[in-house]
Input
Amino acid sequence: MRILVLNAGSSSLKFKLYKMPQKDILAYGLIEKISEELADIHLFFAKSNYKKQKYIKDHQKALKIVEALFLEFGILKSFEELDGVGHRVVHGGEAFSEPTIIDDEVIKVIHQMIALAPLHNPSNLLGIEAMRALNPKTPQVAIFDTAFHQSMPKSAYLYALPKEWYERYGVRRYGFHGTSHFFVSRQLAKLSNRDLKDINAISLHLGNGASACAIEGGCSIDTSMGFTPLEGLVMGSRSGDIDSELIFYLERSTKLTFKQIEWDLNHASGLKGICSDNDMRTIQERISRGDKEAKLAFDIFIRRVVKYIGGYAMLFKSLDAIIFTGGIGENSALVREHITKHLGLLGVVLDKELNKISSSLPRVIHASNSSIELWVIPTDEEDVIAKESFRLLKNLVKE
Ligand code: ADP
Output
């Protein structure tokens, strides 16, 4: 089966073509700056790569370009050869706790979720609708970032707010990055040769966006992102947890409007707010040159992660592992070292040498006397989307 995985952003489209069930990656790539003056097209296949810049009006045109490139390079004759398309969809609300085959009703519900995820769901829908318009017969599957967290108990997902706000307006914690936390927890079970049901773990997805997740027996029981991805850890440019009263103070007492404050909390805060840089590599480089502002941003980031680990550890009867993933979690030995040095109370002991080894493979970094395992597990959300789409579609389609 040929499954195309799509991740549509407001002006971008990431794609990866899988041959399933072998999980062979036949091609992958990215189109950025759709609807801008010049879009960047990148395609990688069979150890080759192709790059071009040209104006691309919308996501449908972008998909047509991908289809034409697949034909030109002998990857597929047309999208009609696809057996399915799997989409990353950010917000599934309470309606979706599983990957779901897309039909008119599902599209309607994803539309309804736009009020909850105005920055993400419209772009995800662009990808779904563009593919439907081009290739209406191919079944499509939606994999929701929120779905994995639908297992959280009410005590984790309800805010201490007037209960009408939840009942009437859907105000609750949904959690995001679910596909990544799902993937790394399954990988941990596989790699450590244990039954998922027997593992309690804290997964730390530390990238530009960052979240922590408490995972009991394979199920999310708490996570740091909430009603939106703004809550929780300090991120590249998002504040994470704040006192919500400060929003009203700023609106009342300064010239900032709610719109500007919302923008600043999402795009001008976090690491960037403190030290003007949101890229952890640059921040580390600045720290090595003695830059105090960069070190302060780093320390605030670390402290927040440590507080979440401490809090989540207390939710379990026992804790087996802490997993590091995402661009920072996978690659920054410095971040891992600084987080774990605060975890002595839990009996965590880092093996500093193992931690320093840079690799794209999953690996352990704890010392033999550590009471909790420390794992670095590169995430692969596309892998989950391809596998889940295959699982749902294999009975519909004949090879
Ligand atoms: P996104 O949330 O956009 O998917 P990523 O998961 O790709 O983000 O993570 C991006 C972050 O990972 C950036 O802050 C980047 O600096 C950081 N990063 C990537 N490689 C390294 C590295 N070798 N050392 C430190 N940080 C790194």
Remarks:
- The first strand starts at residue 2 and ends at 8.
- Residues 299 and 338 are 9 Å apart (CA to CA).
